Amino acid sequence: MDQVDIETINQQARKAKELFNEGKHNEAEVMMQGVMQQALAYYKDELAVEMAEYYYMYGTIIVLKLSEQQDVFGQRTREAENNALGVQDPEDTQSENEGEQIEDGDIEEEHKVQENKPHENIEDLDDFHIAWENLEVARVILEKEVQSQKDKGVQEFKYMRNLAKVYIKLAELDQWRDKFDDAQENLQKSLQLRLQCENQEISRDIAETYFFLGNVTLYNYKEGKEEEALGFYLKALQILENHLCKLQNKEQKQITLQDAYDREHLKMSFLDNDDTKELKQVLSMLYDKVEDTNIAWKEIQTEEWKKAREEMMNKAQLIQQQQVQQQQFTQQPIQEERQIIQLGNFGNARRRVEVIEQPQQNTVAQENNQENAQEKQKDEEEPQEDASKKVKID
I need a labelling partner for 272 at 20 to 30 A (CA). Which of 108, 152, 155, 343 fits? Predict the structure, then answer.
């Protein structure tokens, strides 16, 4: 078999992405499997740092098969696309291999979503494990590389950005299995990395992470989390507004929590380019999210809501107590469980117990013999009963 060059491998990876965007998910998955086999043959090390890119892309394709939601931040701007796997930072010098990297962007921003309900069949579970395994391998490789560079006093943003993206996808899988605490932990890790290598005022990657944190906080169904989610949403909103102001060469404005927001500046204009139009659409959706969450947060602060919740909790507690009582009433008595010691040598163990108890048994036997002798002597002394008094039944 002839050696495949890396450019051919990357072309096939891009083709797999195109197939996925066309809705040909199975074909994309099969092609990506071939890409990974060829990449492994090329690098000859499944844990090579270059392999992380392919593990991530394959895992991402599987994640998107499981996902029903599109990325709320829509298509990336050119600046955000440069943060995708394998693409150099604009501030970095161009490497000789830059043209060989997969211009991945975020596949999720272009693909057509098919309706697949989580936990619908066993194939979903298989896909989940495949996605998790590939993303976990990518995480291990990139974490090791980032730590290695840190130990050397080197900081290359490309690997940090790539690792941040892996954490995002792992968080999606955590949400898929309702592990919201784990999802929040992975999102926080992603955020910390992005805060180190992105512009905190205008980075859409950071805004995206804040938005996902807000969603996970709400999905966790824990009381009083609306205020915390609002904080994440407002941070995302501020960053996107800053980004829009930069695109329009306008002065930045401070965003604070309000009941309703003026959206005049989000109206479309013939002067808007594609990036500006897309950003305005995203901002409009995010404003809706903030306003809805703000309404929900205010509702739980009212006395009526608190009273209704207290009644609901009392009713739930009463039902639980009734269920416990009913279970105790209908439950059959459980026989005492006795531990069997040395089951394989049960006879020997039993004999040892008999030997231990033998002195005590001998004492009891002697006492019984004395009592029997006394009773026999007493019977011999008593006069025999008259035979006539005995009753005989024929």
Answer: 108
CA 360 to CA 337: how far, in whole Å?
27
Residue 191 to residue 338: CA distance in whole angstroms: 54
218 with 207: CB under 8 angstroms? no
Q: Measured in whole angstroms, how far is the alpha carbon of residue 186 from the centre of its chain? A: 8
- Helix, coil or strand: residue 2: coil
pLDDT at 80 over 50: no
Tokens 């010691």 -> residue: 341
The separation between the first and the last C-alpha atoms of the chain, rounded to the nearest angstrom, is 109
Contact 288, 225 (CB under 8 A): no
More confident residue, 115 or 200: 200
The pTM score is 0.66
Q: For residue 153, what pLDDT band results from cuts at 50, 70 and 90?
A: confident
Phi, psi at residue 5, to the nearest 5°? -80, 160
What single letter denotes the amino acid at residue 100?
E
Asked if 188 contacts 228 with a C-beta cutoff of 8 angstroms, the reply is no
Q: Is the pLDDT of residue 354 over 50?
A: no
pLDDT score, position 103: 36
